[in-house]
Each structure stands twice: as structure tokens, then as C-alpha cells.
From TrEMBL:
Record's keyword annotation contains Oxidoreductase: yes
InterPro entries attached to this UniProt entry: Ald_DH/histidinol_DH (IPR016161), Ald_DH_C (IPR016163), Ald_DH_CS_CYS (IPR016160), Ald_DH_CS_GLU (IPR029510), Ald_DH_N (IPR016162), Aldehyde_DH_dom (IPR015590), Aldehyde_DH_Superfamily (IPR050740)
Domain Aldehyde dehydrogenase: start-end pairs: 21-483
Domain of life per record: Bacteria
SUPFAM superfamilies: ALDH-like
Key words, A-Z: Oxidoreductase
Annotated Pfam families: Aldedh
The protein's name: NAD-dependent succinate-semialdehyde dehydrogenase
Length: 490
């Protein structure tokens, strides 16, 4: 029976380095706030380069013993970690909602989703295969074996504070790597709780280390990892500008990188689509976490023949969404993460209206609920001249673009520097084949708005990054291939 903790017991306010809970070496701290109310939840260490170096020291010391465990032994520890996460999904869901703002049902759902990666990679740990290379010369045998790459630095965003760090830590540990991690400054508490449960499950001291840092301290802290040759891999989810910075600054030590970066996802509705299904799929894809996900549709293209009908159906459903704090059990949309997010959403809506958009639903802040709330919004008559066409809104705003034919829709969908997710709805099998091949994205939803699965490879193309998370491919970025050539066998 896995141990169950209450919410208070899960909240940690220190770094975890080398198996010990510790403060920042300079004693600095910063506040973590509840986006629904603005109140301070707790203060955590504001770590710098010295703390990052201490975490690397611990991970480097722990690496030989961890990598030498049998894969099934590492897998058994990960299975215990998964069981602890699931046993504490209620408290973890509450913690996610407190610091991130998403409704409680979504917080619990994220916990189960994050745990699925831990369970998946617990099994994948025992399936790291190499190859016997067919003999090329007499007296020689050749093999390719896969080995853990070494110390991994994981840097994660605020929108999925449990799932994003779980799907980075789990494959790293499964592969035999040790980890140093830094969660987003807005949502560090869930990550700290997750690491606490990993330690409870038997992850040994030093194999998993985590530090917290404010925006101001993040650059020197992460910079230490970028410069340290012992850190052999960086895995990052976040904005494209930061991803490019990490790629540049890690070049001196030629680290391996996995970068899951920004998106600008198109959602195409053809005139032969099942419109009710398309509306339902768009709601699922767009309004999860209030539109604050990297795979949320940002541009919705609707064919002219069904444009008005689709807009009417969608706006009716969107207008009925319940906006409220996570403490309200009926909440479907919570607060945005902070004031900067709200300001960006409002700027995009104002710009769209200035360029001729029409409001079909929402379109305004909701100050009666708090400073970080924005009404779920549908805008008609969107055009390429609007800011929201090229810049990800990251909020509950659906702009509807009109198109005439398939070629126009594909051209518009691909007219972006990003290529993470794309969606389209059609019942024409030949069109489905054509469009799925033509879309420039790492992930394509065909008559489906919910794409995430631990069994599927998640990642993008173009400026949405490289590398894949989840699936049987998810271990590859944590492994290096060694070629063994043995001679003198005749």
C-alpha cells in the first residue's frame, strides 16, 4: 500500500540536493503565489550558480551506481514512484490548482497523465535493445549497444507543472541517467512534491536533484549547467527564444538537446466535416488549461460554406463555459497564470478588433472574478494582418479565419515558423490522406482534438524544436550508441 500524504505534507519549500532538503547557499528566497487570488502560498529558495553546481556535483557522484543498476531494478523504483503519484492524486491535484490555477478536475487529470509517463518508462527501462551487426570481415564481431548519456538537466514550464517534469525525469532515470531539474518559477511546488515522492519510492540520493529560482536567478543557475561538461544533455519545454538561447550557450560543450518549444497550431474545418464533432474537438483542444498549452489551436480555419454555421455552434458552446477559481467544483476555466498573460491576451483581442474582427463570445477581462481572469472568446473575421495570426496567444481566444479551398487552407496553416501540432476535420478519406501529408507539424490530429498519450511521440518541427517525448522513441535522447568491434576471433 502506497503512503498517502495530505496537501500540507506535500508542500516543500527547499531545494533537494544529494538526498537532502536545503536552502539556497546565499539564503535568498522568493514567493510562490496563487494566480486566483494573488496571495503568497509559500517562499522557496532563489537559487543561483552555486546551487546549480552543488546539484551537478550530487548527480555526477550518483551516476555510476545508478547506471549500473539492472534495468529491472530501475524500473521497479519507477513503478513504486508511479504508485505513490496515483495514491496522492487528490492532494497533488489540489496543489496543481493552487499554484497554477487550473480547475481541480484538470489538476487531478494532469496527475494521472503525468503518472502514465512514469509507468510507461518503468517498463521501457527493460527494453533498451542494441544490435548485432552482420559480420563484415572474418575474425571480427561488431555490436551496437546503448548507454545512458550521463547527467541530464531538465527545465520545465509552468502550464503542466507535474506532467512536463514527469515525462522528462522518468525516461532519464529509466535510461540510467541522473538528473538535475529546475521547474518554472511560477509553479515549483508541484515539482518539489513530485521529487519528494520519488525519494520516498527509493530513488537514491543524488540521482534526482531539484533547485528553484526566480526569473532573475534562472540565467546564472541554468548557465552553470550549460557550461559544465558533466551535464551531457539539456531537456527543455518552453519558448522558442529561450530554446535558441540554450542551443547557443550549450554549444561549447556540445550537449545533446531536446527542445519542445512554441507552437502556432492551425485547426482546419472543411465543409464536409461533422460540425458537431469539430466543435467538440476544438473545445477539448483549445480550452484545456484555459488555452495555456503549447498544442492549443491558435488559428481556426473554417471553409466558407460552413463558416457562419460553425461560428454559431462554437460561440454557443463557448459562452456556456464556466469561469471560476479552482475551488469552485463547477469551474471549467480558471485564472491565467499571471498579469503578463492577461495583458498579452487583451492585446491580441484589441488588435484583432482594430483590424475588423467581430466578437461572437467573450472578448473581455473578468475583473469581478479577479485580476487574472479572461472570458472564453470567439472572434469572427480574423485575418493574417492580426497579431494573433503569427504570435501564440496562450489563452482562451479562438479566432476564426475563412478559407475557400483546400490549397488555401494548407498554405495558411503552414505559413508559420512553428510546427508543433495541427488539427483538421474532414470525412473525405482522400482529403484526409492529402492533408495529413501536407501539414508541416510533428503532431497531427485527424478528426480528434485530444492528442496526448504516453505511448505516442510528442514533439515538433521547424522552430517548435526537436527531439521526442513519450513512446518507445522517448528514451533515444537519453542514450548514446556505442559501437563495439572485437577482432582476433578466428
Amino acid at each position: 500500500m502506497s503512503k498517502v500524504f495530505d496537501l500540507k505534507s506535500l508542500i516543500r519549500s527547499q531545494n533537494f540536493i544529494g538526498g537532502e532538503w536545503t536552502d539556497a547557499q546565499d539564503g535568498a528566497r522568493f514567493a510562490v503565489t496563487n494566480p486566483a487570488t494573488g496571495e503568497t502560498l509559500v517562499e522557496v529558495p532563489d537559487s543561483g550558480a552555486a546551487d546549480a553546481r552543488a546539484a551537478t556535483d550530487a548527480a555526477a557522484r550518483a551516476l555510476p551506481a545508478w547506471r549500473n543498476l539492472l534495468p529491472k531494478e530501475r524500473g521497479a523504483i519507477l513503478h513504486r514512484w508511479n504508485a505513490l503519484i496515483l495514491a496522492n492524486q487528490d492532494a497533488l491535484g489540489q496543489l496543481i490548482s493552487l499554484e497554477q490555477g487550473k480547475p481541480l478536475a484538470e489538476g487531478r487529470g494532469e496527475t494521472v497523465y503525468g503518472a502514465s509517463y512514469v509507468a510507461w518508462f518503468a517498463d521501457e527501462a527493460t527494453r533498451i535493445y542494441g544490435d548485432i551487426i552482420p559480420q563484415q570481415q572474418r575474425g571480427k564481431r561488431m555490436m551496437a549497444v546503448k548507454e545512458p548519456i550521463g547527467v541530464v538537466a531538465a527545465i520545465t514550464p509552468w502550464n503542466f507543472p507535474l506532467a512536463m517534469i514527469a515525462r522528462k525525469i522518468a525516461p532519464a532515470l529509466a535510461a540510467g541517467c541522473t538528473v538535475v531539474a529546475k521547474p518554472a518559477e511560477d509553479t515549483p511546488l508541484t515539482a518539489l512534491a513530485l521529487v519528494m515522492l520519488a525519494h520516498e519510492a527509493g530513488v537514491p540520493a543524488g540521482a534526482l536533484n531539484i533547485i528553484t529560482a526566480s526569473r532573475e536567478k534562472t540565467v546564472p543557475a541554468v548557465g552553470d549547467w550549460l557550461a559544465d561538461g558533466r551535464v551531457r544533455k539539456i531537456t527543455f519545454t518552453g519558448s522558442t527564444p529561450v530554446g535558441k538561447y540554450l542551443a547557443r550557450e550549450s554549444a561549447a560543450t556540445l550537449k545533446k538537446l531536446s527542445l519542445e518549444l512554441g507552437g502556432n497550431a492551425p485547426f482546419i474545418v472543411f465543409d464536409d466535416a461533422d460540425l458537431d464533432a469539430a466543435v467538440t474537438g476544438l473545445l477539448a483542444a483549445k480550452f484545456r488549461n484555459g488555452g495555456q498549452t503549447c498544442v492549443c489551436p491558435n488559428r481556426v480555419y473554417v471553409q466558407a460554406g460552413v463558416y457562419e454555421q460553425f461560428g454559431k455552434l462554437l460561440s454557443e458552446r463557448v459562452s456556456a463555459l464556466k469561469v471560476a477559481p479552482a475551488t469552485d467544483p463547477a469551474a471549467q476555466i480558471g485564472p491565467m497564470i499571471n498579469a503578463r498573460a492577461i495583458d498579452k491576451i487583451a492585446r491580441h483581442v484589441d488588435d484583432a478588433l482594430a483590424h475588423g474582427a467581430r466578437v461572437l463570445a467573450g472578448g473581455k477581462r473578468l475583473p469581478e472574478l479577479g485580476v487574472n481572469y479572461f472570458a472564453p472568446t470567439v472572434l469572427a473575421d480574423a485575418t493574417s494582418a492580426m497579431e494573433l495570426n503569427q504570435e501564440e496567444t496562450f489563452g482562451p481566444v479562438v479566432p476564426l479565419f475563412r478559407f475557400v479551398d483546400e490549397a488555401e487552407a494548407i498554405q495558411a496553416a503552414n505559413d508559420t515558423a512553428f510546427g508543433l501540432a495541427s488539427y483538421f476535420y474532414s470525412q473525405d478519406l482522400r482529403r484526409i490522406d492529402r492533408v495529413s501529408r501536407a501539414l508541416e507539424a510533428g503532431i497531427v490530429g485527424i478528426n480528434e482534438g485530444a492528442l496526448a498519450s504516453e505511448a505516442a511521440p510528442f514533439g515538433g518541427v521547424k522552430e517548435s524544436g526537436y527531439g521526442r517525448e513519450g513512446s518507445k522513441y522517448g528514451l533515444d535522447d537519453y542514450l548514446s550508441i556505442k559501437y563495439l568491434c572485437q577482432g582476433g576471433l578466428d
